[in-house]
Every structure is written in C-alpha cells, then in structure tokens.
Amino acid sequence: MASRDEAGMKPIRAARRARRDAALGVVSPGQRIMFVVALLAFGVASIYTSVFMLAHVSPALFPGKNILNLPGITPLQSIVSEPNAASVFNRRINLLIMGIDERPTDPNIAPANTDTLMVASIDPISKQMSVLSIPRDLWVNINLPGQQPYKDRINTSWATGMQAGDGSVDAGAKQLETDLKDDFGINIDYWVLLNFRGTEQLIDDIGGIDVNIPDDLAVPLSYYSDDDIHAKLIQFNPGRQHLDGYHAVAVGRYRNTDSDLYRIKRQQLVLSSALKKVLSLGLLNNPVQLWNDYHSLVATDIPQSKLLGYALLVKDANANLQAYSLGDPVNGTLTVSDWITPGGADVLLGNPVNIQYWVNKAFPNVAFTDSHVEVRNGEGTADETQERALGVYLQSKGIDNVDLGPNQPAQQATTITVYGSSWQDLGDTIANWLGLSATAVTVKDTTSAGPNIIVTTGTGFVAPTS
C-alpha cells in the first residue's frame, strides 16, 4: 500500500505529465477519441457537401443525369434534393445547325447564304430528340441591332449578320439566333456550322451510311456537282441504298424536279441515317477525341466541357429522332405558300398559326405533357366554327390532345373548368391566351377520367387567330 505522501504526490505527478505531454504535443486517449469523432463529423459533412454540390453541378455538365442515382449514394436522396424538371440544368437544349454552300470562287466574294437550316433539340428529362427544318426561302423579318426590321429570306440572316458585325462566323450565327427568336420564338443555346465538303468527309470517315429512300423522295437521273466544275450523273431509286459522302450529300441537296420542301425531307433522312451509324460505331463513347479529330471540319460555340454530357444525352436518346418541318401542312392547311415579292423574288410566306404548331411540336412544353383539353360550344347555336378554330389555336400553342365535346346550354361568358389542382397553371394559361379573367377558371379537386380541362365558349365567342 502506498504511503500517504506517495498518494498525495499522484495528482502532482499527473499534472506534471499533462503539462509535459502538452509541451511535447502528446495527446491523451480521451483527446484521441474526441479528435477521431471530430474527424468523422468533418468527413461526413464534407461528403454531404460534395454530394450536394455534385447533385446540383453535375446536371450542368451532364444534362439529365443525377449523381444521386449512383450505387451507394441512394441513401442520401432523403437529405439531398436533385434539380427538378423545371431546373435550368434540365431544360431543353436547342442546337442551331447551319449548312453553307461554299464554292471555289473568288475568296473576296460576300459570305454565302445558308443552304440548310435546322434546329436540333433534346430534352434531358424525357431523352426525346427532335429536329425542325426551316425552308431557306421563308420570308421573315431580319432584325439587325439598332435598325428597323426589314423583310428577306431567312437564309440571308447569317451572311447579313457577318457583314453587319465583325465578319466572324459567330456574328452571323448570333444574328440568325436573334431572327429565330424574334420571328418564331425559338431559343438557341449553341450553333454548329459546316459546309458540304466537310459533311462528305465526315460521312466517308464513318464508312458511309445506309438510307432507305421512300418513293416520294427518289432522285431521277440527273447531274450533280459539289464544285460547279466536275459534274457526275446520279440516280437514287426507292429502297435501301448504301451511300458514300459525295452521294449522301447529293441526295440531301437534290431539288431539280421538286421543291425545297422535298429537299428538306431528304436532308432529314440523311441526318437520321448518319446519327444511327455514329451510334452503332460507338463514336460517342469518346466525344472529346471525336471533336479533336474533326473540329477542323466544323465550326461551333459548344464548349468542350459540354461535349461529354451532350454525347451521353444523344446516346440515351438512342437515335430516337422526330423530324419536323415548317414546310409541312397542318390538318390539310398549308403552312407555307409561294409568293413573288414586288422585286420579283420567289419566296415562301408562312401561316403564323401553323408555324407555331410545328414549333411547339418540335419543342414541346413539359407543362402540357399528358394534358387533355375539351372544347364545348356554349354559344347557344349549332354552329361550331369558332370552337373548331379554338381547338386548332390551342394545338398551335403546343397542346396536342384537344377534342371537340358536346354542345352545352347557352351561357353568356366563356368558362374554363379544371379537374385536379395540378392542371390549374395550364387552365390559367389558357385563360390568359383567351383574354379571360382569373374568375373564369374553376378548379375542381376531383380528377376526370376524360379531359383535364374543359373550355366552354360563351355567347358571341370569337377564337384567337394567332
């Protein structure tokens, strides 16, 4: 047993050891435990912060992708939210594709007009791809900065922007983006410019493409030249054909015996066939290498940091490409019609309602997906002319599923009945389109097995026309 003096010395010795250990940087077992706990807490906090940042930043680099769905991350879904469908990172991506016809002539000649105009689009949420072709002779407003708009063909926009700006490709593209926005309401994210020689080489380098030519797009025996010097006889009969670059571009450019609207269909056929071939070869597995190999043939403002994410999107879509054209009729009504300007130029005039219909088909509003609207006649007459016109108008605004319902007893004002609160925003939007007040909209909590929204016209109703 220790003496009383020794027992009294223990606290003193312990205090001395603590001071010595502190001076030497030695930590006690208790301090070690606290340190480990603090380190684990910091680690968990760091992982949470990293996942939180990646969950919100990764959609910017990889649209439509969510890190929270990766193995081992799923448990964090309850505490970290992913960007929803309305997030800026998950909105539709629109890519302007411009094809120019550069000829081996005087290098000092003015920039060539665009021979091909398409807007390719992909929705990161639904993985749906679409392409909207724009006839090059469409008569539109050219909206130069600081000047009054003037009329010209849409295919002059790019060259006009180059000449009015700093002479760069980007200046031309930005002008075309402005005109597409102002004339059609189409927003552009990035642009791509290529010429036909470059397109030929790209197709040759993937070993050509297989195209199934329908009867109405067959090309009769004719001459084709890609340089205005050396012409070759070409002919493309209906059926499946394997085409090299030269002949694939020849198919896409032919329009000798038919109109530019048929040429658009041929271009879309070549584009979809080339996309399928690229995917089948797995070339999008390494988009950065693909870009390094071919960037000399293509001008674009897509940043390299976006290439991988966009390539993954295209792969996910699996070449499921829906093609549309502003030259196609709607329900038997022409969207474009021939017109000769006072100056004697042959151009195409557009029907605004039909044009808006095709724009909304190509770039659908996610808020309208799965909606079902029914229009009913409450005017007190048997004439349904205005109700049918309203149905066409609603379709032109992007609501695909619109039906004409049974006639109703006469009512003085037009009303909108919404079944289910989830459709109230669409009901309010329709009311705004029709110039109705918010009191015209009635929301019922019950859902309907039929339409989500019923629009019942009132006495003397006149449908909007654009």
Condensed summary:
The chain has 466 residues and is of the alpha/beta class.
Description:
By secondary structure, this protein is of the alpha/beta class. The chain has 3 domains: 17-88, no CATH class; 92-362, Aminopeptidase (3-Layer(aba) Sandwich), CATH 3.40.630.190; 366-456, Alpha-Beta Plaits, CATH 3.30.70. It is 37% helix and 21% strand. A 6-stranded mixed beta sheet has the order 11-6-1-2-3-12, sandwiched between helices. It has a 5-stranded mixed beta sheet with strand order 16-15-19-17-18, with helices on one face. A hairpin with a 7-residue loop joins strand 4 (139-142) and strand 5 (150-153). The longest helix is centred in the first third of the chain and has 33 residues, at 29-61. It is globular. It starts with a helix and ends in a 10-residue tail after the last strand. The model is unreliable at 1-7, 42-62, 67-89 and 104-109 (pLDDT under 50).
What labels would you give this structure?
466 residues; alpha/beta; Aminopeptidase; Alpha-Beta Plaits; 3 domains; 6-stranded mixed sheet; 5-stranded mixed sheet; 12 helices; disordered N terminus
Query: Looking at the structure, what is the overall shape?
Result: globular
**Estimated helix fraction:** 25-40%
What profile does the largest beta sheet have? 6 strands, mixed
Distance between the termini: 105 Å
Named at the architecture level, the CATH assignment of the largest domain is 3-Layer(aba) Sandwich
Q: Please indicate the percent range of residues in DSSP E strands (runs of 2 or more).
A: 15-25%
What's the average pLDDT? 80
Q: Count helical runs.
A: 12
Strand order of the largest sheet: 11-6-1-2-3-12
* CATH class annotation of the largest domain: Alpha Beta
